[in-house]
Amino acid sequence: MNRKITSQYQAEAEIFKALSHPTRLFILHTIKEKSYSVSQLAKMVGIDISTMSKHLDLLKRYKLIGGIKERNTVYYQLTIPCLFDFIRCARKMIDCSPECQQLQCVPKKLNQ
Amino acid sequence: MNRKITSQYQAEAEIFKALSHPTRLFILHTIKEKSYSVSQLAKMVGIDISTMSKHLDLLKRYKLIGGIKERNTVYYQLTIPCLFDFIRCARKMIDCSPECQQLQCVPKKLNQ
DNA sequence: CAGTTATTTGGTACTTTTGCCAAATTGCCA
DNA sequence: TGGCAATTTGGCAAAAGTACCAAATAACTG
User: Fold this and answer.
1) Residues of B (59-88) whose Cβ lies below 8 Å from A
2) Which residues, 6 or more positions from A21, have their beta carbon under 8 angstroms from its beta carbon?
3) Helix (H) or strand (E) segment spanning residue B30
4) Are B59 and B24 in contact (CB under 8 A)?
């Protein structure tokens, strides 16, 4: 059954993995309003340009962002507008715990 | 600035990381309707019980699931009901690409 | 209490991810 | 064409994640 589960959830897991690094979340939030170049983003975060390039490449591979080349600078921008509906959704979930307690949707008997 | 970004997006990134493994997504979907024990889940996936225990522990650390002990078996269940609103939301995003093309929300000039 | 069952923890090996440096590539401009 | 600027790629080392086995723990049962 291992194979079956893998194929079913692999793709989904990979998207989450793409979103599972602070720098990449920063990128997505930062280029939401305005495109930035690789070196601009690298400077903002304080990491090597090549490292930033690789983060951007990863996001590009999952079609979350895309780059537009002007002269010899690549400006990155969001490809999927609904990405932020999603992230808003994620935050709602993350903040859910207290709400959950109000709504009493925590399992009745939790061992500690 | 590195520090600032880390603190701001670290927590969010960690939640995504918790969701970035096929087995853990399987767990969440499987215990949605009905609680299962560690060994039951391990058998379904076809991995070692100790490995499954560690996946469950990770999800528990992020308060996504909780365990109820009956006799000497621990049954795991979802803690956050809105988790699936979120996952539905994630799937919508993942399936977004074709929609996006219809809606022409792909950047105008994408270099390949 | 001794044995059994279920889970967790510790240890180890393997793989993947991340980040830097250096080198290669691409495209502009004099 | 030669040099410059921006980005990408390759290589390596450190860190993190994953999976197994074996041992430890916890809780029931005779």
Assistant:
1) 63, 66-69, 74, 77, 79-83, 85-86
2) A55, B13
3) helix B22-30
4) yes
The structural domains of chain A, ordered by start, are 2-80 (1.10.10.10)
Residues of B in contact with A86 (CB under 8 A): 89-90, 92-93
Burial zone of A85 (CB within 10 Å; 0-12 exposed, 13-18 middle, 19+ buried): middle
**Residue B68 structure tokens:** 């109820």
Task: Give pLDDT tens digits along chain A (112 positions).
Answer: 566 666 778 888 999 999 999 999 999 999 988 999 999 999 999 999 999 999 999 999 988 899 888 888 889 888 876 776 676 766 666 665 443 333 222 222 222 2
The tokens for A104 are 């009493």
